[in-house]
Amino acid sequence: MLTDNLLDLTHAAYLHPALIASDSTDRTRVSIEQEGDELIYRMCVDDEPVNSTLFKLFWDREEETAFFWNNLHWMAPSHIIHNVGMTPKGVRSEDAPAAPTAHLITPATDSATHYFWASARNRRVEDDDITHQMHAMIAHAFDNEDGPMIKQAFGNMGGQEFWALRPVILAGDAAGVRARRILQKLIRAEFRATDAEDIEESDFGNPRPLSVGAV
Fold first, then answer.
1. pTM for this structure?
2. Which H or E run contains 35?
3. Nearest 5°: CA angle at 106, between 102 and 111?
4. pLDDT tens digits along 76-103
5. Architecture of domain 2-203
6. Does residue 129 sit in helix, strand or coil?
7. Which of 114, 123, 193, 199 is deepest in the core (most CB within 10 A)?
């Protein structure tokens, strides 16, 4: 569910209005590309006001509007590189103010997950005060905005499998649905590989119980 949340870039306008401060969902353009077992999800908006608390920390331009881009690179099973930035007119996106974040997620139990993240910026990197403010903003978003929603949704599922609940799929769920299908494919392949390995060991007179790792 952490991955589902991260892969829905539209959720920021509802859960993180102060951090991102974008209400331009109706003007947003999105694209999703699949490369093997990886997804590239891009979202962008033209002429977006520079009014988010995050970018105000290190915006070093005179322009009050910019091209806003919000990109995710998901790598199975659950690693994500998230890069968000604002590009003034006439400036290459590579040279624009940006804040990349890495999300590293791994299961601990059936109901708990280890979630590690690290964020950076490419402006005023020597300013410790901005670093502390940025960390506090992002931690608040994860702990007090994303966290309660994810816990409530997980509790509402009552331990049932996601697809068994016959969920309503919205446009913003496209990347999450693709990720789930990729994971299902990888899990099936792991089962088949483990079955084959089990048979091979048995043929050599060394039978052992089937053991399948969690993904």
1. 0.84
2. strand 29-35
3. 130
4. 999 999 999 998 888 887 888 899 999 9
5. Alpha-Beta Complex (3.90)
6. helix
7. 123
